[in-house]
UniProtKB/TrEMBL annotation, chain A:
This is Amino acid/amide ABC transporter membrane protein 1 (HAAT family). The chain crosses the membrane at residues 20-43, 50-69, 75-99, 108-129, 164-181, 210-229, 249-271, 283-303. The keyword Transmembrane helix applies. It is a multi-pass membrane protein. Keywords: Amino-acid transport, Cell membrane, Membrane, Transmembrane, Transmembrane helix, Transport. GO terms for cellular component: plasma membrane. It is found in: Cell membrane. It holds the Pfam family BPD_transp_2. Belongs to the binding-protein-dependent transport system permease family. LivHM subfamily.
From TrEMBL, chain B:
The keyword Membrane applies. It holds the Pfam family BPD_transp_2. It is a multi-pass membrane protein. It is found in: Cell membrane. The chain crosses the membrane at residues 26-43, 49-69, 76-95, 101-123, 130-148, 184-203, 234-254, 266-284, 291-310, 322-341. GO terms for cellular component: plasma membrane. This is Branched-chain amino acid transport system permease protein.
TrEMBL record, chain C:
This is Branched-chain amino acid transport system substrate-binding protein. Residues 1-23 form the signal peptide. The keyword Signal applies. Gene3D superfamilies: 3.40.50.2300. InterPro entries: Leu-bd (IPR028081), Peripla_BP_I (IPR028082). Belongs to the leucine-binding protein family. Keywords: Signal. Residues 31-387 form the Leucine-binding protein domain. The keyword Signal applies.
Length: 317, 358, 430
């Protein structure tokens, strides 16, 4: 028993290094996608203290809009632009209809409101686009679909080109986002709002504008996530459940930290895959990915209650 | 006029702290209870029992359990459904291992198991707060559902992995399983729910409840005035999980008749959270109002187009239903973030001074 | 006050609706799922079912001169909604079609009390085949154990099974676990290694862990028990990990055209067992097209109509319609009761001649039921994806009936004991 837990998995890893690399790569790709969703959460949380549960359904909604528009015969790239337009409209609507009347309410109320938004969008999406599984327009968007086959140490390592693309695009997106937040006026305004609402308001930063902007950026991230994930497994409402995976990432990385979201995402993606393959499947009957990330995050939090990168919590009476 | 409180004098502290300091409240409750015990069972159809009355009661109880934790002790939990599952599986194991056991006793005991599990998963609350804690409770949610699936002993190694409620009798009458009459089940549920509610009301009014409220309002301050936070938080998890576990056992034994692990997955948790929040956090009555809205509304909405003869496919109705529920949640949060219980409190205040407002 | 006025209003409305459902004709509700993660599989099936009944109503004015009131109640594949739908529709229904193994299991014990037959064509609980124990439940024409048996027989034709490793990739759900008892039994008797790989409901779209396991374990065959979004996920992963497609076989619910279209050419060689097959030249298809689709009464599309699942939906409705016809002849009146329909479904005799007469040539194998045999065990074909559509890759293969019926009887007894008191059909002498 102890042998199965502490020794055998590591021997397996060393014996088949190509397989270990494959496992890590699969974990990395999932991790990137978790990180992207978590990023959407963090952005909104930082600027408005809203724990936006609707990020998952926004991913589905963006992907469905893209595919749905393309099915109507619109060229792929125009679809992307139109989808961005739809996400912008969504951001404006959410800000106007839901957030503005709820300013200043307790966190849990805002959280529930985003669950309400989630339900609403699920119903709306099903009515407009129907519930069936759809194919992501991968090729039309110019994403290569072949795979790269490497043979390290005489083994086999299969890298999907679309996964490589996803990794690169995600990296670019993160860099762009960091530049935007640190170098532009708007970006600084967002950060200022995250630090202190009232101080930001008093120096003339418009809350409404920033909220719309932040939700729109979250929409862009949702679209990228939707394309990347949709290319892997098709577009359907079942995608929504991946949003749950972003939650332990947030716990681990801290609710306010962008770096935390990215590192947390990659860490969780790879760790859960390693655990599942080397411990979960042989010893526990598999499917440990549903809870492993949560338990891991929970254990980390017991030692660092603010997450790995969260702001230190100082409590005063 | 009907609700006039003038003239009801209190001469002792006991009288002032009574459950119903205002006589009309007691009368109103008596009427509602009489109706629930006598009136409804005569009027309702089988459909109403199965889709409205029984589920509303059970959901109310589950929401009440959650409300003890979230509304009274301030610990946000997203894992309610998993604790319901613990109750349900514990009850199933008990009645299959000990078939002679009285089903109601089994249901009440099964809450004890979920209380134990609840305390175990409540330990992180001593370190973690707010949304971090909420996500931590999700660990319980996902882990327990996974366990229900993988641990064959829990479902007696049934090939399908689902549990089937056996036919159980109490005093010669079937109370659970396919042979049981809905009316009997309704009475059992009503009795258990009443007992639990009575217990919860008194708990929340007593020392324990006040400790919880102090913890909720500011735990550091509570600690400074000498409240043992560990005891306060863990008792909240224990009592809350107990009530939720009993609700889970009722859910499967008195209503569903069978259960598969993913029944206790996150949508159920959210549903109960909706009920607690729409009903009003920190209120006992709110849970009932919330359950009536969240459970009853979709059922009623689903029957509207048919009743009006609007030709619309059932799938579209379902989608519209989801949309309407989502929109309603947002709507209620906007008009009354403190929930339906608060709305009732406002109405009651108006009634007290009616017809002579200031 | 608000509390009980609301309950009263709801109860009154509920009661009112109970009566409002009383429409013209024979009430045959369908607990459909056109929404949720499984909608992809559900929609074509539901369309096929509805269109066949609409066609009968348009062509013959129903069955035996009485129109069929075929209507859907949406469950979204949720067991909770399913039970609600069952309660809502049962008042004057002559049949219930629960459409999910979870809902079937839930409704099954109630049928004895409510005395309404449930028709679960190609799904549900395999021991339902034992009609002596399960009076009111039917899973024509094949059960999951039959399906698993046909797949194993087909694999055996390609080579010996002993010493091989067979991965069983299944949804972690009552549906996916259903064939396990049979497969475990066979693994022992045939001497192959069975490797169950569960796919959680949340993992359906992202099965990389499962397929890494497949890659590590290198099974000789993968048998797939998937539904809805899981199929597409599995097939794309299989293509990605370069698992030989001709070594991958699925149950009938995993043979959905739309899922395979996702991978197109790459999926070539993938196989699925099926007890139905699309035949665009069958007279019944022409009738459906003329009377229902062209009349604008259908939600289907031409592409979907050629698919396996649409025709399967059609066949399911045809089986139900045949059951009604038989019941009407037996009862001597068109307005049959649920008990009459049960008799009808127990005495189906769909010979090839009868199938041709109904215009269903080549769409379903001939089969017959009896009071002891509620499945029919029709046998099935292995279908192969040729890159654009499914084609037949084998002749009709019959499941091994002896071992299966033994297992069915044993498990049915177990079920009856666990649910005692459970009435057993004493009249059935077969």
């Amino acid at each position: 028993m102890l042998n199965d837990i502490f020794i055998k998995p590591f021997i397996d890893m060393v014996e088949a290094p190509d397989f270990l690399l494959q496992v890590l790569w699969e974990g990395l790709v999932s991790g990137i996608l978790y990180a992207l969703i978590a990023l959407g959460f963090v952005l909104i949380f930082r600027s408005s203290r809203i724990f936006n549960f609707a990020q998952g359904i926004m991913v589905v909604f963006a992907a469905l809009t893209l595919v749905g528009l393309h099915a109507m015969g619109v060229p792929a790239w125009i679809c992307v632009i139109l989808t961005l337009g739809v996400m912008f409209l969504l951001a404006v609507t959410i800000e106007r209809v839901v957030l503005r009347p709820l300013v200043g309410q307790p966190d849990i109320i805002l959280f529930m409101a985003t669950i309400g938004i989630t339900l609403f969008l699920i119903g709306l999406g099903e009515i407009i686009f129907g519930g069936e599984n759809k194919v992501m327009i991968t090729e039309e968007l110019g994403i290569p679909t072949d795979s790269v086959v490497l043979e390290p140490w005489g083994g086999l390592l299969i890298l999907e080109q679309k996964d490589i693309t996803a990794v690169i695009v995600a990296a670019l997106l993160v860099v762009a986002l960091l530049l935007f937040l640190n170098k532009t006026r708007m970006g600084r305004a967002i950060r200022a709002l995250g630090d202190d609402h009232q101080a930001a308001l008093s120096v003339g930063i418009s809350l409404q504008q920033i909220w719309v902007l932040v939700w729109f950026i979250a929409g862009i991230i949702a679209l990228v996530t939707g394309i990347a994930w949709g290319a892997r497994a098709g577009v359907s409402f079942a995608l929504e459940v991946i949003a749950y995976k972003a939650l332990p990432v947030l716990m681990l990385g801290g609710l306010e930290s962008i770096t935390g979201a990215i590192i947390g995402g990659l860490l969780i993606g790879m760790m859960e895959k390693l655990f599942e393959i080397y411990w979960g499947q042989p010893l526990l009957g598999g499917n440990t990915e549903t809870w492993f990330a949560f338990v891991l995050a929970l254990i980390v939090l017991l030692f660092r209650p603010q997450g790995l990168f969260g702001e230190r919590i100082i409590e005063r009476v | 006029m009907l609700y006039r409180t003038a003239g009801q004098f209190k001469t002792s502290y006991q009288a002032d702290q009574a459950l119903f300091p205002v006589r009309q409240d007691a009368v109103l409750l008596a009427i509602i209870l009489a109706f629930a015990w006598g009136g409804l069972p005569l009027l309702a159809s089988e459909f109403a029992f199965q889709t409205l009355l029984i589920p509303i009661l059970i959901y109310s109880l589950a929401a009440l359990g959650l409300n003890l934790l979230t509304g009274f002790a301030g610990q946000l939990s997203l894992g309610t459904a998993a604790f319901m599952g613990v109750g349900a599986y514990a009850c199933y194991k008990m009645v299959t291992l000990m078939p002679w056991m009285n089903p109601v006793v089994a249901i009440l005991l099964s809450g004890g198991f979920s209380a134990g599990v609840g305390v175990a998963f409540g330990i992180p609350s001593l370190r973690i707060k707010g949304f971090y804690l909420a996500i931590a409770t999700l660990a319980a949610q996902f882990f327990l559902v996974w366990l229900f699936e993988k641990w064959g002993w829990l479902y007696n190694y049934n090939a399908s992995g689902a549990i089937q409620v056996p036919n159980l009798t109490m005093f010669g009458i079937y109370v659970s399983g396919p042979q049981a009459d809905s009316r009997v089940q309704y009475y059992v549920v009503l009795a258990v729910v009443m007992l639990m509610t009575w217990m919860c009301i008194n708990l929340t009014r007593g020392t324990l409840g006040r400790t919880w409220k102090a913890t909720r309002d500011m735990d550091i301050a509570a600690e400074l005035i000498g409240i043992n936070l560990m005891r306060s938080k863990l008792t909240a998890f224990a009592v809350s999980s107990y009530v939720v576990g009993v609700a889970g056992a009722l859910f499967v034994f008195m209503w569903r008749g069978a259960a598969e692990p993913n029944l206790f997955d996150i949508p159920l948790s959210f549903r109960i959270l909706f009920i607690a929040i729409i009903g009003g956090l920190g209120s006992v009555m709110g849970n009932y109002l919330g359950a009536i809205l969240i459970v009853g509304l979709p059922v009623v909405l689903g029957t509207v187009p048919e009743a009006l003869g609007i030709p619309i496919s059932s799938a579209t109705v379902e989608h519209l239903n989801v949309m309407i529920v989502g929109a309603l949640i947002v709507f209620f949060l906007i008009i009354e973030p403190h929930g339906l219980a608060r709305l009732w409190a406002l109405i009651r205040e108006k009634l007290i001074i009616w017809p002579f407002p200031h | 006050m608000t509390k009980f006025t609301r309950i009263a209003a709801a109860a009154a409305l509920g009661a009112m609706v109970g009566q409002a459902a009383m429409a013209e004709g024979l009430s045959t509700p369908n607990l459909a799922y056109r929404t949720g993660p499984f909608a992809a599989t559900g929609i074509p099936l539901m369309n096929g079912q509805a269109d066949y009944m609409a066609m009968l109503n348009a062509r013959d004015g129903g069955i035996g001169g009485i129109p069929i009131d075929f209507f859907e109640c949406e469950t979204g594949y949720s067991t909770e909604k399913g039970v609600e739908c069952y309660e809502k529709t049962k008042s004057n229904a002559i049949v219930s079609q629960p459409w999910s193994t979870g809902i079937t299991l839930q409704v099954l014990p109630k049928t004895n009390v409510d005395q309404i037959p449930i028709l679960a064509s190609g799904y549900g609980f395999s021991p339902m085949a034992d009609g002596k124990v399960f009076h009111w439940a039917f899973n024509t024409p094949l059960s999951y154990w039959d399906g698993a048996s046909i797949i194993l027989k087909y694999i055996k034709e390609m080579g010996d099974l002993s010493g091989k490793k067979v991965a069983f990739l299944h949804l972690d759900h009552p549906f996916g676990k259903e064939p396990l008892p049979y497969l475990e039994m066979k693994a022992e008797s045939e001497g192959f290694e069975l490797l169950p790989i569960p796919v959680g409901l949340k993992e359906m779209q992202n099965q990389s862990a499962q397929w890494l396991q497949v890659r590590r374990e290198r099974p000789d065959y993968v048998i797939m028990w998937g539904w809805g979004a899981m199929n597409a996920g599995a097939i794309t992963e299989a293509v990605k990990t370069k698992f030989p497609m001709d070594k991958m076989l699925g149950v009938w619910w995993s043979g959905h055209d739309a899922d395979l279209r996702l991978v197109g050419e790459d999926g070539k060689g993938y196989k699925s067992v099926s007890w139905s097959f699309p035949n665009s030249d069958a007279p019944v298809m022409a009738d459906v097209k003329k009377l229902v689709v062209d009349a604008g009464k259908s939600q289907t599309s031409p592409e979907e109509m050629d698919g396996v699942f649409y025709s399967r939906g059609l066949v399911i409705s045809a089986i139900l319609a045949e059951g009604i016809t038989v019941a009407q002849e037996h009862a001597g009146k068109p307005d049959i009761s649920p008990a009459d329909l049960r008799w009808g479904l127990e005495n189906l005799n769909l010979t090839q001649a009868r199938l041709d007469e109904l215009g269903l040539s080549g769409m379903v194998p001939p089969f017959s039921t009896s009071c002891a045999n509620h499945t029919g065990h029709s046998g099935g074909w292995i279908l192969e994806w040729d890159g654009a559509k499914f084609v037949k890759a084998s002749d009709l293969i019959m499941p091994e009936s002896e071992a299966i019926s033994e297992l069915e009887t044993a498990k049915a007894r177990e079920y009856a004991e666990a649910n005692a008191p459970w009435p057993v059909n004493e009249d059935c002498q077969m």
